[in-house]
From TrEMBL, chains A, B:
Keywords: Aminoacyl-tRNA synthetase, ATP-binding, Cytoplasm, Ligase, Nucleotide-binding, Protein biosynthesis. Its main location: cytoplasm. Catalyzes the attachment of proline to tRNA(Pro) in a two-step reaction: proline is first activated by ATP to form Pro-AMP and then transferred to the acceptor end of tRNA(Pro). It catalyses: tRNA(Pro) + L-proline + ATP = L-prolyl-tRNA(Pro) + AMP + diphosphate. InterPro entries: aa-tRNA-synt_IIb, aa-tRNA-synth_II, aa-tRNA-synth_II/BPL/LPL, Anticodon-bd, Anticodon-bd_dom_sf, Pro-tRNA-ligase_IIa, Pro-tRNA-synth_IIa_bac-type, Pro-tRNA_synthetase. One of its GO terms (molecular function) is ATP binding. It comes from Acidocella aromatica. It is an enzyme of class 6 (ligase). This is Proline--tRNA ligase. PANTHER family: MITOCHONDRIAL RIBOSOME PROTEIN L39/PROLYL-TRNA LIGASE FAMILY MEMBER (PTHR42753), PROLINE--TRNA LIGASE (PTHR42753:SF2). Residues 33-334 form the Aminoacyl-transfer RNA synthetases class-II family profile domain. One of its GO terms (biological process) is prolyl-tRNA aminoacylation. Homodimer. It is found in: Cytoplasm.
Length: 430, 430
């Protein structure tokens, strides 16, 4: 993308409404704009990041054996009356009346709808298990939306649901999803820790939250250093993996157990702060019973399938990752989800040799590069590249261009390399 | 995907609610289920088709020079008061009140919102042109939703918007989008014809609709045979292309001009029926003036950018394509958007040799294949493969398997080929 032709409206000033780093940086880097309280438009760079995260989530859901569907945003109130949650949900549910005075709502989650879909289309135990998921916008009418996309009203969530024959199947689904989540976060390039959680409004017997470590996180977290190294994920068997994940110590301050904590060697104790970006639930037959979803078993007897649900806040992750990865100058994107691998900074726009080398780099990298082809001074180009957080900056001035040399800067470390064109390209491509 | 583990609930009976072929076939093939009047859930095969169409649309928008953003589904009523359309829009607009009694709505289109975004972030003529687009769910509260996804209430649309310096720029945007649309439909594998149209609610001076030819179409259409051959799209220059598109005769019955029609050689006259799947508009400064979006020009004077908007109904296209491509037995997908390239039909599930060959084919094709591994009789497998419309069927029985032979059936033509495994795979891969 050529910056001169892009809708990437960076800001020098920090907008007054933004209280936290990710919100400030997303506005300043031109990733999002607020359209109404807690409702955002995603501009090109923001949307690229959102999509890259969604794609990694999708690939790991598919790999786990889940299958993608897409449920609508608008739901019928009657569905929620079946589960008894219509009245229970309260003011966070955005309730809507259509032209025929039918009661609708903007879905805040989809347990009811997916249960109805599977119930109405599955008759036999032979059709189980079913693990559908979708990636769709949700709405929760927060009383006080804030912190940008970390607590927006319209937000993008991946929600998966598992329908299994029995308890053992449901446990396997739960553990498989935990593994899928940890792989997802690892591929994104951030450290996430699963922690035992309350089941809250969803209900059920077992739940884990996934917290990203970030100094500005909302919860205090206590954890074993094993989570930092990634060793914890080495298990190849899903049960061994789950065993390991749930025995290594990790807890939010609400659930912190000092007696257990004291048994951990001091050099492995870590305290930090976390941002919740996902949660998984096992809730047995709560919804299948409430919505009368019974299936005929091998013995001819009806039974209620065992269920779980599994959410990742995709739009929330964008903010959470920035909380975990930024400095004074701006965002530091992990390579896997950066909007562009590199920015090409032309320090002498209009100089034939410099322009020619920049065009050559841009042609070679294509959609992986943002080409800063504006007639702006070098200082501004450096500052905006740091702000936007591209993993690499390819700096091209007239002297280097004449010698066929590109200066590379690695955003995360500040390292610099002076390299011939092909070597520079190879390094950026990884 | 293994059919035994999939959420593809095919139906033998035709649902009573479905009046037209595409609606019947989408329900029977298990692509969609209605969740509320005019509101559908997309099951795995339906969602794959929807995504493949969206991806072709996206690639051609990018190629045309447009840039992807994502605007939210929920909009503020105040935005629509600025353009004067809030009251004008009538009951098709789904109006919503949030917990703080603020007036919101579910966006039926985005002229107002995108104008506000560009207005608030662009100050100079140097930042023009801007051609943003997004692919997002919209809602129109139709009084009588019907025909499945052809006239749903919640529907997926690609809408692009152009903001240009002057009339010439706007005309270039309009023509470039027409070319992008024709390339999009050609890649999908259907014949579409641009026809001069009224501007309706959007307003403006110039508009074309794009109609897909289908015997069950809503409008009668009269057109020159040049549109059938694809010759009309050979122009490489966008202006020459536009000239050709708008001089070859094509008109809906509403706009049909028998005087011109009579001048066309009889052997080139075609009459058929069409389904509208897209529309483009040039409307000048209608919205930039109403919403006071003025930019400083090279001469220091303020001016209002020239605008256009460009829609493709992506969910509607799924239904329209089926109207154009089906027979008594079911859907006939064009290769480019089929949910799977091939179905592998195992005619003797449980026979070791047959199973082994099917698994080999499935491993080779991966996500491109739907493997019918159910213990059902051959007749049912054939019928459901025809219904679902996979471009190829790979039929494997015990005799063929023992000889290493696969029977291929081409859905569109009924042609059959008996081929060794590698040749069969090569044919399916195209």
């Amino acid at each position: 993308m050529r910056l001169s032709r892009s809708l990437i409206p960076t800001l020098k000033e920090t907008p007054a409404e933004a209280q936290i780093a990710s919100h400030r940086l997303m506005l300043r880097a031109g990733m999002i704009r607020q359209m109404a309280s807690g409702i955002y438009a995603w501009l090109p760079t923001g949307y690229k990041v959102l999509n890259k995260i969604a794609q990694i989530v999708r690939e790991e859901q598919d790999r786990a054996g889940a299958q993608e569907v897409l449920m609508p945003t608008i739901q019928s109130a009657d569905l929620w009356r079946e589960s008894g949650r219509y009245d229970a949900y309260g003011k966070e549910m955005l309730r809507i009346t259509d032209r025929h005075d039918r009661e609708l709502l903007y879905g805040p989650t989809n347990e009811e709808m997916i249960t109805a879909i599977v119930r109405d289309n599955i008759k036999s135990y032979r059709d189980l298990p079913q693990w559908p998921y979708h990636i769709q916008w949700k709405f929760r009418d927060e009383v006080r939306p804030r912190f940008g996309v970390l607590r927006g009203r319209e937000f993008l969530m991946k929600d998966a649901y598992s329908f299994d024959l029995d308890y053992e199947g449901a446990v396997r689904a739960y553990r498989t999803m935990m593994l899928a989540y940890m792989r997802t976060f690892q591929r994104i390039g951030i450290t996430a820790i699963p922690m035992r959680a309350d089941t809250g409004q969803i209900g059920g017997d077992l739940s884990h939250e996934f917290h990203i470590l970030a100094p500005t996180g909302e919860s205090g977290v206590f954890y074993d250093a094993a989570f930092e190294t990634g060793d914890a994920m080495d298990a190849t068997d899903v049960d061994a993996f789950y065993e390991r994940m749930t025995t290594i110590y990790a807890a939010t301050d609400e659930k912190h157990d000092t007696a257990v904590w004291d048994t951990i060697p001091a050099e492995r104790r870590r305290e930090g702060r976390g941002i919740e970006v996902g949660q998984i639930f096992y809730f047995g037959t709560k919804y299948s019973q409430a919505m009368d979803f019974a299936v005929t078993g091998p013995d001819g007897q009806k039974f209620y399938p065992e269920m779980g649900s599994y959410g990742i806040g995709i739009s929330r992750l964008v903010g959470a990752i920035i909380e975990a990865r930024h400095d004074e100058a701006g965002i530091i994107w992990p390579d896997a989800i950066a909007p562009f691998k590199a920015a090409i900074l032309n320090l002498r726009q209009g100089d034939a040799t410099t322009d020619a080398l920049c065009e050559k780099l841009y042609a070679a990298l294509g959609a992986d590069a943002l080409y800063d082809d504006r007639e702006e001074r070098a200082g501004q180009k450096f500052a905006e590249a740091d702000l936007m957080g591209h993993p690499w900056q390819m700096i091209v001035g007239p002297r280097g261009a004449a010698a066929g040399i590109v200066e590379l800067k690695r955003r995360a470390t500040g390292e610099r390399f002076e390299l011939p064109v092909e070597e520079a390209l190879a390094k950026v491509r990884g």
